[in-house]
Write a structure and sequence with these properties.
This protein is α/β, with parallel strands linked by helices. It has 2 domains: about 300 residues, 3-Layer(aba) Sandwich (Rossmann fold); about 60 residues, 2-Layer Sandwich (Phenylalanyl-tRNA Synthetase, Chain B, domain 1), CATH 3.30.56.70. It is built from 14 helices and 14 strands. The strands form 4 sheets. A 7-stranded mixed sheet has the order 5-4-3-6-7-9-8, sandwiched between helices. A 3-stranded antiparallel sheet has the order 12-14-13. It is globular. The N and C termini lie far apart (about 70 Å). The structure holds S-adenosylmethionine (SAM). The site of S-adenosylmethionine (SAM) has 21 residues, from helix 2 and helix 4.
Length: about 375
Amino acid sequence: METKLREIKEGKTFFLVPEFENKKGPGKKRSGFYNPTMEMNRDISILMVQWLVDTANKSVKILDGLAASGARGIRIANEVEGDFFVTINDWNKKAFNFILRNTKGFDNVEGFCENVNCLLHKKRFHYVDIDPFGTPVPYIDAAVKNVIPSGVLAVTATDTATLCGVYPKTCIRRYGAMPLHSWIKHEVGLRILIGYICREAAKYDRGVEVLFSHSTDHYMRVYVRLRKGAGEANESLKKVKTVDAVDFTYENRKTEVGPLWVGKLHNRAVLKKLQNITPRKTLGKRRDVEKLLTRAYEEVDLPIFFYTIDVLSSQLKVSPPKPFHVLEKLKELGFKAGGTQFGDTSFKTDAPREEVYRVFEEVSSS
Ligand SMILES: C[S@@+](CC[C@H](N)C(=O)[O-])C[C@H]1O[C@@H](n2cnc3c(N)ncnc32)[C@H](O)[C@@H]1O
């Protein structure tokens, strides 16, 4: 039977995917070959690859390793400017045929139909994108070992229930880390994912520098640069720790989480560059991307974990104040404070918990 096709436009790129039902919810079957809810994820990778190509002084070799119909790789080939070459791979024959069809006429692309782990051991790349269904764990070993030093590894995880503590035993088996099912669960999950990548890289004497990371909708996404050398690996590992999340649990109870990444979630200079590249690009999710980059910029130098207005109001039994007023007060007192990507009414601060409580009560009653 012939597959019905649908033409998609993302960014300024057109491509074909198998017809799919565009509805959410149980019983609504969706194509495994194209996921429209990942458009923002792909928009950001266009910015990141553009940054990498802009900063490299050589031709950049890019791998879209788990490509399905090739949406991401084709967009990179069509929308990034400069000197680069894209390899688009999927081990599924049908997906591969879509990749070939969608890349006809491009002279900066090749298609592969291989197990990505084998491909990574045969060919080397400056940028590797790992975007699987569910957990990325089966691909990280080959990826961290083979990305060209100083190159970038981009990883998506959609096993968020595991990373966010719904299935702690699975998280321990998969990522070797204890998650936390509280309001900070997405940050804990994101940091567990980075910590895992860091530990995997360290096996091969490689360190990681986190360029940008986010938790959006049903997925987490991390961009790290891999640095060569045992010293780099040791330095990175210093930032992977088990921490006590006592202040961020509903019961204020001693609670060990991790090991997880306690370093920065973004690189400030890279964020600035991504913000500068954004206006030059055609992005379907521009507003969401800009909001995320702004929040990332706000949180980049703030400590790990965050408070949230709703939880604090219910813990302290006071009416919820405007986040802005809490932040202003904390800053007035000389603390660092700012918004975070993890929620519109969430904030990070270096103020001790007692001080946060005191300020919160004061602002809420004024
Ligand atoms: C979530 S989809 C990729 C979506 C795609 N990156 C996009 O942005 O539209 C995951 C793809 O990985 C492919 N895949 C799974 N395991 C693989 C492996 N070991 N090697 C190559 N491809 C694999 C599947 O066939 C599937 O098409």
